[in-house]
Design brief:
- Strands 1-2 form a two-stranded parallel ribbon.
- The two termini are about 25 Å apart.
- The protein is about 35% helix and about 15% strand.
- Helix 2 links the parallel strand 1 and strand 2.
- The chain has one domain.
- The chain is an alpha+beta fold.
Length: about 80
């Protein structure tokens, strides 16, 4: 995420479902801490750690099963 982070109160008020995908090999964030924080503020959030991918490589090196995960979430 770049720019100002949304306030926790704003995230708690989201009515839309949210899918949070976190890179396991991120040097920027601790995946466990990110998932814990998301669990506290996203009432309709689903989250998952993606193995064997880094924060910056995620858009280019999609791990196995990522397409199925996104399709499943988007089609509900």
């Amino acid at each position: 995420m770049t720019g100002p982070r949304p306030a926790p109160e704003a995230l708690r008020g989201l009515a839309a479902p949210v899918l949070l995908l976190v890179a396991a090999n991120s040097r920027t964030h601790d995946p466990g801490e990110v998932l814990a924080a998301a669990g506290r503020v996203l009432p309709r959030g689903e989250s998952e750690v993606l193995p064997d991918v880094s924060h910056h490589a995620l858009p280019h090196a999609a791990p196995a099963g990522l397409g199925r995960r996104l399709t499943g979430f988007l089609t509900g």
